[in-house]
Amino acid sequence: MIKTLCPFSKPIIGNWCKCQYANLDDRCAGKMTCLQADDYISDCYDLVDVFKEQSRFILGLNQHEQALTHMQLMKIRCGGLLGMQRILSDQLDEVPDVLGVKHLAEQKYGDVSNFPFNEIVRDIKDFTHRKKRG
Known about the structure:
This protein is mainly alpha-helical. It is built from six helices and two strands. It has a two-stranded antiparallel ribbon with strand order 1-2. Strand 1 (22-26) and strand 2 (31-34) form a beta hairpin. It is globular, with a radius of gyration of 14 Å.
């Protein structure tokens, strides 16, 4: 099996989210792979793509800008998950589970792209990875 890098590696290592299928390969490099890559990795990359597209305006990104800073990526991934969790669940004191949040959104909205992202853009904008979690 080819190891596929998890798009939530750094947020998982920073304890901003969790995934039961994430496998720590290199903590110093912030690299985790997905143990169930064939089943779930495309879902995670699709979720990041939706977060990125929905947060372009709030982060001041234009369509041609491809290289994002570490902080922009953390805002998109962590802020997006925390915002979705805030809307979907009353368990705000728990670290969000990536696939759990995605599947809950799909149950409620049919597809994650139908999620009311206008309600989480402030979570993306306001996220800072300097705050301590867990």
